[in-house]
């Protein structure tokens, strides 16, 4: 592998890690897997008195959620992380390690898919696949996030790789049959363990391949199905029945029954039938050339048509059928994005390799380059904005800085918004005599004063009891007026609240800091270090000279107040 090959391979994992670095905290959708990974790493797998050990040490017992979820992904992440945590000095670093490993697993699946794209469409297509995929915000940003979808994403992407490789061999060839079986097997395992919606993608892929005579029931479907079902069910039922202390338990079936058959998912909101096609897919792909020009061109072009159809028809069928469910989220269809990007890469390759032959190809090539650069710019802006959506994690980190290292311990209450926007057990401080991998780290049982104790009580009756509040030293609160007692605000953590369009002549600052720039400038003026004034003088100059007075600023608003108790029990 030469320098260009190494650079090509490194682009996607490097960008995933950069996104992780700039947005290190998590949200509520990721909380189960990140907390479960923490608990396994910290307390291990109980070997005796299981029920009590799980109840005392594992977060899911106290906060089970509406339906049980699988521990398989968390167990795998904990296993991958365990050899490395001895080199780390703080639990926060372990959270970054855990997310980095998941991100690198997903990056590896995309790299392997890129190699398959090269075999199917040629090296230029692989280069364009890497550029198109790297410039898409959602896949790169969420690749390291412990959503169940991103565990399934790695398997579905590898399944797509096998599907693409199978098409490179003659039909019914042994090698092709092997790849088809692996593709269906991986989709089956991913659907059973992680995300049940992949059953639709599996069905669409199987029916398409069967209708084209590419697979047989006895030679491909049955071996892949039986093997996938056996491995998937054996893994999830054995692992999850133990951790949830309910036998037999198949979490993904329980979630499917609760959300889809009983219809509880609609409580989270519904969207029109066209949401995925007209909203989610364009947002996920970002680059409009992808679906307006590149994918249609790859399907029309005889040299790339068959491979492109093999990917596009099952993916389209999955999106169309899934559109019948009322509750829709973009992450439910993220599995089709690498495949559609691969098809678009074939169209990109066709245009790029012919740029010297005709004016039309030169113009399309120029448009392709400009659109990819613009996609990178948009993705970078989305990263900057998205990193502001985690005030809970930032507030807890700020509280630890305020409390100082000389503090031997405190009792802290964390409210619901803080838990939803970044607070995890990896962020909690622990006694200095303990290492990051101590067996009793963050034990949530009652500690004497001198230890750090974190509370997430949501019981309304307790929150109305003054005796409940007086035992805490600090509180992270969205609504400080609901905190009973005598408190003072130590700090305020701001968070994203939209964007503001500045018109010519409109001042950049208001009376109170509202935008990211204002907050940074305010912080800079309070510190003894270098001022932010030159930076904003440059922005003002750009606004005046380049955009003629127009500007886009990110609006911020107070999200979390850090309160100190002035009247402890």
TrEMBL record:
<feature type="transmembrane region" description="Helical">
    <location>
        <begin position="222"/>
        <end position="244"/>
    </location>
</feature>
<dbReference type="GO" id="GO:0052917">
    <property type="term" value="F:dol-P-Man:Man(7)GlcNAc(2)-PP-Dol alpha-1,6-mannosyltransferase activity"/>
</dbReference>
<feature type="transmembrane region" description="Helical">
    <location>
        <begin position="273"/>
        <end position="297"/>
    </location>
</feature>
<dbReference type="GO" id="GO:0006487">
    <property type="term" value="P:protein N-linked glycosylation"/>
</dbReference>
<keyword id="KW-1133">Transmembrane helix</keyword>
<protein>
    <recommendedName>
        <fullName>Mannosyltransferase</fullName>
        <ecNumber>2.4.1.-</ecNumber>
    </recommendedName>
</protein>
<feature type="transmembrane region" description="Helical">
    <location>
        <begin position="332"/>
        <end position="352"/>
    </location>
</feature>
<feature type="transmembrane region" description="Helical">
    <location>
        <begin position="101"/>
        <end position="121"/>
    </location>
</feature>
<feature type="transmembrane region" description="Helical">
    <location>
        <begin position="5"/>
        <end position="22"/>
    </location>
</feature>
<feature type="transmembrane region" description="Helical">
    <location>
        <begin position="364"/>
        <end position="385"/>
    </location>
</feature>
<comment type="pathway">
    <text>Protein modification; protein glycosylation.</text>
</comment>
<comment type="function">
    <text>Mannosyltransferase that operates in the biosynthetic pathway of dolichol-linked oligosaccharides, the glycan precursors employed in protein asparagine (N)-glycosylation. The assembly of dolichol-linked oligosaccharides begins on the cytosolic side of the endoplasmic reticulum membrane and finishes in its lumen. The sequential addition of sugars to dolichol pyrophosphate produces dolichol-linked oligosaccharides containing fourteen sugars, including two GlcNAcs, nine mannoses and three glucoses.</text>
</comment>
<comment type="similarity">
    <text>Belongs to the glycosyltransferase 22 family.</text>
</comment>
<keyword id="KW-0472">Membrane</keyword>
<keyword id="KW-0812">Transmembrane</keyword>
<keyword id="KW-0808">Transferase</keyword>
<feature type="transmembrane region" description="Helical">
    <location>
        <begin position="182"/>
        <end position="210"/>
    </location>
</feature>
<dbReference type="Pfam" id="PF03901">
    <property type="entry name" value="Glyco_transf_22"/>
</dbReference>
<keyword id="KW-0256">Endoplasmic reticulum</keyword>
<keyword id="KW-0328">Glycosyltransferase</keyword>
<dbReference type="InterPro" id="IPR005599">
    <property type="entry name" value="GPI_mannosylTrfase"/>
</dbReference>
<dbReference type="GO" id="GO:0005789">
    <property type="term" value="C:endoplasmic reticulum membrane"/>
</dbReference>
């Amino acid at each position: 592998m030469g320098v260009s090959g190494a650079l090509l391979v490194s682009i996607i994992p490097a960008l995933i890690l950069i996104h992780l670095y700039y947005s290190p905290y998590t949200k509520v959708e990721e909380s189960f897997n990140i907390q479960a990974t923490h608990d396994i790493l910290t307390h291990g797998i109980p070997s005796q008195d299981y029920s009590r050990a799980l109840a005392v040490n594992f977060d899911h017992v106290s906060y089970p959620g509406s339906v049980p979820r699988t521990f398989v992904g968390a167990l795998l992440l904990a296993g991958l992380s365990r050899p490395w945590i001895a080199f780390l000095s703080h639990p926060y670093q372990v959270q970054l390690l855990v997310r980095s490993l998941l991100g690198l697993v997903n990056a590896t699946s995309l790299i392997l898919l890129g190699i398959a794209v090269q075999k199917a469409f040629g090296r230029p297509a692989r280069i364009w696949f890497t550029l198109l995929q790297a410039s898409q915000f959602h896949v790169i940003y969420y690749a390291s996030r412990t959503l169940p979808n991103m565990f399934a994403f790695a398997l579905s992407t590898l399944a797509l790789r096998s599907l693409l490789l199978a098409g490179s061999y003659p039909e019914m060839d042994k090698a092709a049959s092997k790849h088809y079986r692996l593709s269906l097997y991986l989709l089956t395992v991913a659907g059973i363990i992680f995300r049940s919606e992949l059953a639709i993608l599996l069905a669409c892929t199987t029916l398409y391949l069967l209708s084209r005579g590419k697979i047989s029931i006895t030679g491909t479907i049955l071996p892949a199905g039986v093997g996938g079902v056996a491995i998937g069910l054996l893994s999830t039922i054995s692992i999850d029945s133990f951790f949830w202390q309910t036998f037999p338990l198949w979490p993904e079936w329980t979630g499917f029954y609760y959300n889809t058959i009983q219809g509880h998912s609609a409580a989270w909101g519904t969207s029109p039938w066209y949401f995925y096609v007209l909203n989610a897919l364009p947002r996920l792909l970002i680059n409009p050339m992808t679906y307006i020009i590149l994918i249609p061109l790859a399907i029309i072009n005889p040299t790339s048509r068959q491979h492109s159809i093999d990917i596009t028809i099952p993916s389209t069928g999955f999106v169309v059928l899934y559109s019948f469910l009322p509750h829709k989220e973009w992450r439910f269809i993220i599995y089709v994005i690498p495949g559609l990007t691969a098809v678009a890469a074939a169209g990109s390759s066709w245009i790029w390799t012919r740029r010297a032959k005709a004016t039309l190809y030169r113009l399309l090539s120029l448009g392709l380059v400009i659109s990819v650069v613009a996609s990178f710019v948009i993705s970078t802006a989305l990263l900057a904005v998205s990193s502001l959506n985690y005030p809970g994690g930032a507030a807890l980190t700020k509280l630890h800085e305020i409390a100082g290292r000389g503090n031997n311990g405190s009792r802290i209450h964390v409210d619901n918004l803080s838990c939803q926007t970044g607070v995890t057990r990896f962020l909690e401080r622990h006694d200095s005599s303990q290492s990051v991998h101590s067996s009793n780290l963050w034990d949530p049982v009652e500690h004497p004063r001198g230890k750090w104790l974190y509370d997430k009580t949501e019981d309304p009756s307790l929150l109305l009891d003054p005796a409940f509040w007086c035992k805490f030293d600090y509180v992270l609160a969205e609504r400080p007026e609901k905190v009973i007692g005598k408190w003072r605000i130590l700090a305020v953590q701001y968070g994203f609240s939209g964007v503001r369009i500045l018109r010519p002549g409109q001042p950049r600052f208001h009376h109170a800091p509202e935008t990211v720039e204002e907050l940074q400038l305010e912080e800079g003026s309070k510190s003894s270090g270098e001022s932010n004034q030159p930076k904003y003088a440059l922005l003002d100059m750009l606004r005046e000279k380049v955009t003629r007075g127009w500007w886009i600023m990110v609006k911020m608003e107070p999200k979390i107040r850090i309160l100190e108790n002035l009247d402890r029990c």
